[in-house]
Every structure is written in structure tokens, then in C-alpha cells.
Design a protein that fits this description.
This protein is of the alpha+beta class. It folds into four domains: about 10-115, Acyl-CoA dehydrogenase/oxidase, N-terminal domain (Butyryl-Coa Dehydrogenase, subunit A, domain 1); about 135-240, Butyryl-CoA Dehydrogenase, subunit A, domain 2; about 250-395, Butyryl-CoA Dehydrogenase, subunit A, domain 3 (Up-down Bundle); about 405-433, no CATH class. The protein has 16 helices and ten strands. The strands form three sheets. Strands 1-4-5-8 form a four-stranded mixed beta sheet, with helices on one face. Strands 2-3-7-6 form a four-stranded antiparallel beta sheet, with no helix packed on it. Strands 9-10 form a two-stranded antiparallel ribbon. A hairpin with a 2-residue loop joins strand 9 (about 285) and strand 10. The longest helix has about 35 residues, at about 245-285. It is globular and about 95 Å long. The protein binds flavin-adenine dinucleotide.
């Protein structure tokens, strides 16, 4: 009976190494530099510090592990990747150091699956070598979670394709060498069959960055979510990724694993918040005793611990389900995990922050910043409501309507059938009394 919650000792050794390496070598980057520098290749850390760290990761065979061995990765599968991401989630710089930062990891996956040999050589290889970063350009200013409202168009013109339209929140566009742009190629069919993916170098004439939108708290100039105008952007026909109309089918490849990695990074973040909460509860004295002795504080610790373990197991189960090749169940579980991700961050982050009192709200602790990531988690990659709809739709596929007027669990007919089944015994019982 294979139902095992343990980690292989050899892989645990790797996790232990990652844990120490991230703590000692990578987390100091988060403390010394602003997180927007993660992608800014012009900054000296990308010449002097990060390549050395990346080389150490490569020497350990831990580089770009989301990809198969033919592409320079380990092809670990989702469960191992999830355990790795639990550690990497503690640091903004760690995914870059390990060659698995979003959106590059997802973009590399789809290039590996659907790219031609030329596309792989030109876009995938430098991405895998850590020489460039990329962007995924899908959301539009008037429509994010409803692709049926997408207006950005791409049309064939001789040997080229021409893209016209606006995209919103195209993360890292300003640092990217190329963007994968989703655009409607056939408006006469449903958008899910009429949208294509184009590989667009970011220095192509006609690209205009209207502005780089920042997240709340980022200083002016630091924003990296571009509002882009593709104004008659012309790319050669060979820049079509996959076939015409295949964009949404391809996009599914991209989002599956990435969502689990994000969730597991959130597990790592919440574990850190929980650790801080416990340390503070055992250290801070009020009314003659440490906070940890107060029952309402104990309740917070218990609730947070239970919620974190539940979430962790669910994410790992989703990863395991994908590794089993069960795509249908995997889809439901990924959506479940996406729904829970912001919620655990809100609940556990807030409790940890609250236990720290004024210090928790200050800029001398990371708790406020950590907690404010929750709304982002509830929107990026689609809002919570959309993932709940997916869960409900998928789950309902396993059910059918009741046949008669009353539900199949209606007691009277079931009781009558049961009484018939045991008629002899019931008669015997009646005779006895
Ligand atoms: C940090 C960050 C990075 C991002 N990076 C990228 C990127 O690199 N590339 C890219 O293309 N996009 C990116 N996005 C955009 C992201 O994919 C969209 O924000 C997301 O799809 C939601 O679209 P929207 O913002 O237009 O919200 P809307 O679609 O307007 O939704 C707003 C709200 O409406 C409600 N709602 C929506 N649909 C339903 C429904 N079916 N039922 C009930 N309520 C509903 C929800 O409350 C939802 O939060 C990023 C977003 C964030 C926050």
C-alpha cells in the first residue's frame, strides 16, 4: 500500500543544502537590495553576485529543475519541485538564483513543449542559461479574467504577423528580451479557439510602454508591470508559437505547475510568519507572563498551525496528483490550492503581525509586507472567484441529477427498501416483544 508522507533521504539532503544555501547566501540579497532588482539585468548584482550563486546551484544539479534533462533541468516532477519551492519562497531572489522564476519558468515550459528548433535556440536556450528574462503578455486594460473581452489582434500579412492592441500588467516587460503575446487571430470563432501566441522581441518597432505600473508600496520608477501598446508590431511568421488558435491550449501547460510552485512558496512564507509568531509569543511578557501562556494567543498559534499543515498537505497532494498523470483531478486540486493561497496568507500573516503589536505593523519587521502580498495572490493568475468556479464545475461533473421528484437520499423509500431487505428479522423482533 503506497501512501507515504516521507521524503527520500537523498532528496532530503538536497533540500537541506538548499535550505542552508538560501539562508546564508541568498536571503542577504533580499535584505540589501530592493526586490525590483531581481529582474533588472543592468544592476551590478547581476554581473557580480547572482551568476556565482547560479553556478553553485548548477554545480549541485539543482538548476531549472522544472525542466527535463534534455533541457538542462532535472525533470523532478511536481512533488519534489513543491518541496524545493517551499524553501525558495522565503526569498525574492531565490527563484532567480535557482533558474525557476516566474514568468520565465512557465514560458520556458511552453517553449520546450511547443517551440520549433529555431525558437528553442533563439528564445529558450538563453532563458535556460539565465542570460535573459522574459514576459507573458495576456491581460488587457479592459479585461483580465474574461478573455472573451480581449481585443488585441494579430493578423497575417505576407510573411509576417502584425499585432495591434493594448496589454496591461505585463510583468517584467521592461527587463525582458522577449514577450509571449496572446492575441486574437480569428474573431469569428470563440476566443478559446481563435487566439494565438506570438514571440515578440521587446525591441521590435511599434512597441510603446505607456507606463510601468508599480504595486502599492513600490517607489515611483520601480514599477515593473507594463501597460503596453502593440502598435502595428510586425514579427516574422516563424514567431508564431504552436499553431494559429492554439494559445489557450498552450497556456494550460504553462499555468499548471507554476500555480503549485507559487502555493508552495506561500507555504514557506507562512511558515516563516508562524516561526516569528511563536518566537515572539515565547519572548514578550505582559501582565506577568509570556504571551504564549495566554489562551487567546495559544488559540491563534493552534489555528495557524492547523491551517498551515492543512494547506501544506493539500498543495503536496495537488503536486502528487499531477505526478500521477491525473490531469482532471490535478486541475481541480490546482484551483483549490489557488483559492486557499491568499486566505492562508491573510489568516496566518495577520495573526503573526498582530502578536508582534506595534512592531508587527512597522517597517522594522517583514510582516506587513508579507501580509499585503495576500491580495496579489488572490488576483494574479486569475481571481479567486474564477478558481472557485473551476472547482465547482469540475466537482459537479462527477454527479448527476436525482431521477425522481425527491433526492436519491430521501429517507422514506430507502427505509422501505431496507425494511423489505430485513423483513424476516424485523418480524422476528416484533414477535419477541
Ligand atoms: C502582481 C501581478 C502580476 C501579474 N502579471 C501578469 C503578467 O505577467 N501577464 C499578464 O498577462 N497578466 C498579469 N497579471 C494580471 C492578472 O492575470 C489579472 O489581474 C487577473 O487575470 C485578473 O484580471 P483583472 O485584474 O482584469 O481583474 P477583473 O477580471 O476585472 O476581475 C476583478 C474582480 O472581479 C471579480 N470577478 C472576476 N471574474 C469573476 C467571476 N467569474 N465570478 C465572480 N467574480 C468575478 C473578482 O472579485 C475579481 O477580483 C498580473 C497581476 C498581478 C496582480
Amino acid at each position: 500500500m503506497a501512501w507515504d508522507f516521507s521524503t527520500d533521504p537523498e532528496f532530503q539532503e538536497k533540500l537541506d543544502w538548499i535550505d542552508e544555501f538560501v539562508r546564508e547566501e541568498v536571503e542577504p540579497l533580499d535584505l540589501a537590495f530592493s526586490s525590483h532588482l531581481v529582474y533588472d539585468r543592468t544592476h551590478p548584482i547581476h554581473q557580480e553576485v547572482i551568476p556565482k550563486l547560479q553556478q553553485e546551484v548548477k554545480n549541485r544539479d539543482l538548476w531549472a529543475c522544472h525542466l527535463g534533462p534534455d533541457l538542462g533541468g532535472k525533470g523532478y516532477g511536481q512533488l519534489k519541485l513543491a518541496l524545493m519551492n517551499e524553501i525558495l519562497g522565503r526569498s525574492q531572489f531565490a527563484p532567480m538564483v535557482f533558474g525557476c522564476q516566474a514568468p520565465d519558468s512557465g514560458n520556458a515550459e511552453i517553449l520546450a513543449h511547443y517551440g520549433t528548433e529555431e525558437q528553442k535556440a533563439k528564445y529558450l536556450q538563453p532563458l535556460l542559461d539565465g542570460k535573459i528574462v522574459s514576459c507573458y503578455s495576456m491581460t488587457e486594460p479592459q479585461a483580465g479574467s474574461d478573455p472573451q473581452q480581449f481585443e488585441c489582434r494579430v493578423r497575417r500579412d505576407g510573411d509576417d504577423y502584425v499585432i495591434d492592441g493594448y496589454k496591461w500588467f505585463s510583468s517584467n516587460f521592461r527587463y525582458a528580451a522577449f514577450a509571449i503575446v496572446m492575441a486574437v487571430s480569428d474573431p469569428d470563432v470563440p476566443v478559446y479557439q481563435g487566439t494565438s501566441m506570438m514571440l515578440v522581441p521587446t525591441d521590435t518597432p511599434g512597441i510603446e510602454i505607456i507606463r510601468n505600473v508599480g504595486l502599492a508600496g513600490e517607489r515611483p520608477g520601480e514599477g515593473s508591470h507594463a501597460y503596453v501598446h502593440y502598435n502595428g508590431v510586425r514579427v516574422p511568421a516563424e514567431n508564431l508559437l504552436g499553431g494559429e488558435g492554439q494559445a489557450f491550449a498552450i497556456a494550460q501547460t504553462r499555468l499548471g505547475g507554476g500555480r503549485i510552485h507559487h502555493a508552495m512558496r506561500t507555504v514557506g512564507v507562512c511558515q516563516r510568519a508562524f516561526d516569528m509568531m511563536c518566537e515572539r509569543a515565547l519572548s514578550r511578557v505582559t501582565q506577568g507572563e509570556v504571551l504564549a501562556k495566554k489562551q487567546m494567543v495559544q488559540e491563534k498559534i493552534a489555528d495557524a498551525y492547523i491551517q498551515l499543515q492543512q494547506f501544506r498537505l493539500m498543495v503536496l497532494h495537488a503536486a502528487w496528483t499531477l505526478d500521477q498523470g491525473d490531469k482532471k483531478r490535478g486541475r481541480t486540486e490546482i484551483a483549490m490550492v489557488k483559492v486557499l493561497t491568499p486566505q492562508v496568507l491573510i489568516d496566518i500573516g495577520y495573526k503573526a503581525l498582530h502578536i508582534h503589536g506595534s512592531l508587527g505593523t512597522s517597517n522594522e519587521m517583514p510582516l506587513m509586507g508579507l501580509w499585503t502580498m495576500a491580495p496579489v495572490m488572490g488576483i494574479a493568475d486569475g481571481p479567486t472567484e474564477v478558481h472557485k468556479v473551476t472547482v465547482a464545475r469540475q466537482v459537479l461533473k462527477d454527479y448527476k441529477p436525482s431521477e425522481g421528484l425527491f433526492p436519491s437520499m430521501h429517507l422514506p423509500p430507502r427505509q422501505e427498501a431496507a425494511r423489505k431487505k430485513f423483513a424476516d428479522l424485523i418480524e422476528h423482533e416484533v414477535a419477541q416483544h
